[in-house]
Design brief:
This protein is an alpha+beta fold. The protein has 5 helices and 8 strands; from the N terminus they run βββββαααββαβα. A 5-stranded mixed barrel has the order 1-2-3-5-4. The chain has a 3-stranded antiparallel sheet with strand order 7-6-8. Helix 2 packs antiparallel against helix 3 and helix 3 (about 125-140) runs parallel beside helix 5 (about 200-220). The longest helix has 21 residues, at about 200-220.
Amino acid sequence: MQINDEGIILKKKKYRESSLLVTFFSLNHGINSGLVKGVLKKDFGTYEIGNKVYIKSTFRLDDQLWNCRFELIKNNSVNYFDDRNRLNALLAICSIIDLSLPKNNPQATIYNKTVDLIENLFSDEWTVKYIFWELFLLSELGYGLDLEKCVVTGKKENLIYISPKSGKAVSEEEGEKYKDKLFKLPKFLIKRNLKPTEDSLKEALLLSKFFINKFLKKNDKKLPFSRKNILT
């Protein structure tokens, strides 16, 4: 069987002297791994994590390792080598996708959102985009946060906390007694026209990191090191 698709490289591993095992997230076929034979040193740049590639794959059986050839569509990784925070974000995006999604399962909406984020990491608002991408991914995985009403009263006013247990918002009045056990809920997550402060960005990153990590732990996986080092 032959498959042609586009995708993002998630990770790579050297295999013997001149071959690579490459894991990729493709538009129409989800996450798969393939063997690339006869990789020349001059072509190594094609296989950097985060690069967008055109994939030509062949295999006989569904459970067999794919034999692949890759053509570079866009070198995303080279743009972030000199920016530690953005590079950590790029590596975190690829690792979290690899750890979170089932293999060989098309996820076109997540794929398109992920490509859009990777290609916009150089924008001034990249941190905000990254945070909303994590919240979007949690929602797609069935672990979305409820930031619209208080979990106790159902009211939509004065939402300033979020429960680490339920992932639901808590109002100022209801959360006052337990505020040391609750996360702060940055206002820009509710009102997107607000410009976030540096402190609120860090609070939002802490919030989304906690719930991504919570999801991964339930599946016996660990938060990638790169995710721990965004804006540190």
